[in-house]
Each structure stands twice: as structure tokens, then as C-alpha cells.
Design goal:
With 284 residues, the protein is an alpha+beta fold. It contains six helices and 13 strands. The chain has one domain. The longest helix has 13 residues. The model has no long low-confidence stretch (mean pLDDT 96).
Length: 284
């Protein structure tokens, strides 16, 4: 049974109410970008990991170092998970990051961790796609909207058993890194930063959309590790996500993660952020 309700006479007045930003960020301590830039000038590459197409790999970055995700052979989207390297219960919180910084991240934005720690995990220090901005469709790059392509939604919508979606890729990579069965590793996999992915919401129906990524070989996004990090990156089976995102036919390319260590003394005055100061009494 369906009901059609009348439009109220003051409908346009209600729609015309001005929006209010939910979380004004003027009081957030700004990241020391000038200090990070100075430290980056001395940084030397200490390692790199190549992530094969339709697969994921883990990597570790000590606090005070940089990591860079690079496009190497062709347009390719990646799904990034981050954990506290010493406590997997502290992990990237995409929803709160979105609430603080917006639907898409770029230079100067931070990746925040889950409750109760809720602190910066990584700060974006370079983004060669910063120029893209917001296109006429409302699309932008590096989103914290999408959750990651996964086999459960695929099964729900089309009855498939697809194992090389980003959720499964990240599960296998984390299981291998920690020496765990996949079923034990899987609950630690979480909503992602969609690196290089170009996305938005349709203006008529408000649906999440994707379009071909503008990333090209040589582009990169770089982060400063605020705490000791365990990361996992999946090279999405959708390639540039211009048509689909769980596919064995889409053209896919590897992604590369590079890790850089700055010289001693170049981060004077910086220290890893403490956990959130809320007393956790919850009114008791």
C-alpha cells in the first residue's frame, strides 16, 4: 500500500532554510604543514611495495615518516585501510573524517581514527590531483563516501561469488600480514579512503556515482604518518572505475607504495598526537 501526501503550503519556505555546517573546524589544531615540508626535503626512500592489479598488499610506516601512493602503469583506483600498528581496534574512521573535512580529501586534510582514540592517523601532505577540484557533475577525487567494493553486495544484487573485490583483497592481505585465518582478519577491514577515485552524488536522485579517474602515471598522493601505521592498499578490480568496480574484464594496473624517512632533527617540536581527551565517563 502506498500513500501520497499533499505538499504543505510552506514547502518552499522549509526548503529555503539555510544550511549550518555540522562540525565547524576553525578550532581544530592545524597540521604543521611547513614543518612537514621541511622534513620531506631531507627524506630518503627506505622501501616500496608494488600492489598487483586486483590484489592488495600491506605495508608499515613508523610515526614521523612519509608514505606515497603512486600511479605507475595506467589509470588505477586504490582502496586504503589504516590501523594503529600496535592496536588494530584503532583504525581509520571514514565517517568522522568525512564529517570534519568533507566528502573528498586533499592536501592538509587528515585521516582520523576510531573511538575512543579519535586522533589524526595521517595527514595528506601532497596531492598531484589537487587541481581537479569539483567538476560540473559534482565529482571530485579521493573520496570518503564509498565503503569499498565487496562480495556481499555483489551477491545481494546479482548472486555472484566474486573474490577479487577490494574487501576480499584487503582481507587476504591482512590475513597474510598477521598470520590469521581470513575469517579472523575480515572484521578488521573497514571503510576506506578511495584513493584516486572520482565520485560524487547525482543531483536528481542523490545516488553515489563514479566516473573514470583523472589519475595518470606519475601522479601520487602522499601522507605523513602521525602514529605507527599498518596500512593495506587494494588495486581495485574496476581499474579507473569508469564503468564498473568488480570486474575481471576492466583494464587494471598496479599501484606502488613508497616509504620515506626524514633526517633526524627535522621534526623538532612534533610528536605523535595523544588519544582523545574525552574522559569516557559517559555521564556516569
Amino acid at each position: 500500500m502506498s500513500h501520497t501526501f499533499p505538499v504543505p503550503p510552506d514547502a518552499e519556505d522549509r526548503r529555503a532554510v539555510a544550511p549550518v555546517i555540522c562540525y565547524p573546524t576553525e578550532t581544530l589544531p592545524p597540521p604543521p604543514m611547513a614543518l612537514f615540508a621541511t622534513a620531506r626535503k631531507t627524506a630518503r626512500k627506505t622501501g616500496e611495495i608494488l600492489v598487483p592489479p586486483r590484489e592488495a598488499r600491506c605495508f608499515r610506516v613508523p610515526a614521523g615518516q612519509f608514505f606515497r601512493i603512486c600511479s605507475v602503469d595506467g589509470p588505477q583506483v586504490g582502496d586504503l585501510n589504516l590501523w594503529n600498528a600496535h592496536d588494530l581496534s584503532e583504525r581509520f574512521y571514514s565517517g568522522k573524517t568525512r564529517a570534519l573535512h568533507g566528502t573528498h580529501l586533499t592536501r592538509g586534510d587528515r585521516m582520523w581514527s576510531s573511538f575512543p582514540a579519535m586522533r589524526p592517523m595521517a595527514t595528506i601532505t601532497e596531492d598531484t590531483l589537487e587541481w581537479y577540484g569539483i567538476d560540473p557533475y559534482g565529482g571530485a577525487v579521493h573520496d570518503v563516501i564509498g565503503t569499498r567494493c565487496d562480495p556481499y553486495t555483489g551477491n545481494l544484487l546479482s548472486g555472484t561469488q566474486y573474490h577479487h573485490c577490494c574487501h576480499s583483497n584487503l582481507t587476504r592481505a591482512l590475513a597474510d600480514e598477521l598470520g590469521l585465518p581470513e575469517q579472523e582478519a575480515e572484521p578488521h577491514v573497514h571503510d576506506v579512503l578511495n584513493v584516486f577515485m572520482c565520485t560524487g552524488f547525482t543531483r536528481d536522485t542523490g545516488q553515489y556515482f563514479m566516473k573514470a579517474s583523472p589519475v595518470r602515471p606519475g601522479d601520487h598522493i602522499e601522507f605523513f604518518a602521525e602514529i605507527d601505521l599498518l596500512g593495506a592498499l587494494s588495486a581495485c578490480p574496476g581499474g579507473d572505475c569508469g564503468a564498473e568496480h568488480s570486474s575481471d574484464t576492466a583494464v587494471c594496473h598496479p599501484l606502488k607504495v613508497e616509504i620515506y624517512r626524514p633526517d633526524e632533527g627535522t621534526l623538532t617540536g612534533w610528536s605523535p598526537p595523544p588519544v582523545n581527551g574525552y574522559d569516557r565517563s559517559h555521564g556516569r
